[in-house]
Amino acid sequence: MYDVKSMNADDFINDEEILATLEYADKNKHNRELIEQILEKARPKKTGRGVECAGLSHREASVLLACDIPEMTEKMYELAKEIKQAFYGNRIVMFAPLYLSNYCVNKCVYCPYHMQNKEIPRKKLTQEEVRQEVIALQDMGHKRLAIESGEDPVNNPIEYILECINTIYSIKHKNGAIRRVNVNI
Q: How far apart are CA 148 and CA 14, in angstroms?
């Protein structure tokens, strides 16, 4: 059963839901009225606490990604710029990389993690090693991380990635806590 809030990967990575979402996107990729509604929902709203965005569902995002209407694409770019400006202004936000594992089953030639690279020793951090790395990064002043991992369902299943994210967010250190984790698998 599809459950977006589940911590079990099989519940939120669901083939039937993915296929239904792709079909929904294909059926609606030229639905200008729906696309306009989605863009309006995504638009930042000023509140007493600052700027807030409602966020989009995966189906809404899929419609925008499938849309190939040039003027709608231009509206998306403009809205993306508006959202970026609302949250970050003119500053550049850096994410410190945290390499969780270099095990990978893919053959991407641009990436040193690829399975055909027999020259590198393979490593997967334990949760204690993740904790030590996060504390070291916090001590350097980092508040945002980009976690990096090869794709390997045996050595780096999605549950491992989720466990690492939970470990990262659980760490309250003298310099505060990590505010944001981006995932690059």
A: 23
Compute the residue count for the chain.
Answer: 185
Residues 6 or more apart in contact with residue 152 via CB below 8 angstroms:
101, 103, 104, 105
Q: Domain residues of the chain, as ranges?
A: 9-88, 96-184
**Would you state the structure tokens that stand for residue 111, as one six-digit string?**
């990436």
The answer to whether 84 touches 45, Cβ cutoff 8 Å, is no
CA distances to 50, 120, 129, 161, 169 from 166, rounded to whole Å, are 27, 28, 14, 9, 5
Residues 24, 105: Cα–Cα separation, whole Å: 31
Question: pLDDT digits over 30-73, tens only?
Answer: 999 999 999 999 999 888 888 888 889 999 999 999 999 999 99
- The fold for domain 96-184 equals Transcription Regulator spoIIAA (3.30.750)
Nearest residue to 96 (alpha-carbon basis) of 144, 153, 63: 144
Tokens representing residue 46 in the block? 């000023």
DSSP code at position 55: -
- How far apart (Å, rounded) are the C-alpha atoms in residues 134 and 140? 10
